Amino acid sequence: MRDKANLAELIELKPDFIGFIFYDKSPRYVGDLLDEKLVRSISKPIKKVGVFVNSNPDYILRIAKKYDLQYVQLHGHETPDFCRNLKSRGVNVIKAFSIDESFNFASLNNYKPHCDYFLFDAKGSDPGGNGIAFDWDILKRYQDREKPFFLSGGLSLENIAQVKELGIKIYGLDVNSKFEIAPAVKDIEKLRQLIDIVRPAEEEVEV
Description:
By secondary structure, the chain is of the alpha/beta class. The chain is 26% helix and 21% strand.
């Protein structure tokens, strides 16, 4: 999110999380468009998430403080030590991983003590926001429920039912491109429909 009017409309829907992308190569990069006062005024039940890709820890901390972010979402090659460093400095961490058939879930073990949540996204040409889904049956290999996770990548109104049919406990859904009118401009009506579908299942929604 970055457009002031669009963000104000979204807040009225009361999603569980709202994301702001601080990666300058993304078409959804907030740049100088993000209204600091409006972001800081978002009520506490809605958690604010800053999305970063291989950023300097000091930059992440500075942005988190400026916008009063509750979480940072790391979409690059950040190591367990990188996550530990942020956690030790009072930052809540969501670590994203690109998933395909070859992904080894055992590689997550060293991250578990230093992350609040994982996020599983489709492997694509960009760190995230590729608008494609991976084979969700792969998630059945993730037997360890010690660390809850968000599902991301190509989620739409058309395939949400398939997610529910997986029979896998998913903490939240991270939706983006399939709910946009343009990069970083969300389709409020589609999001309203999504929230109506998933709220009865008590799943979290991040947009």
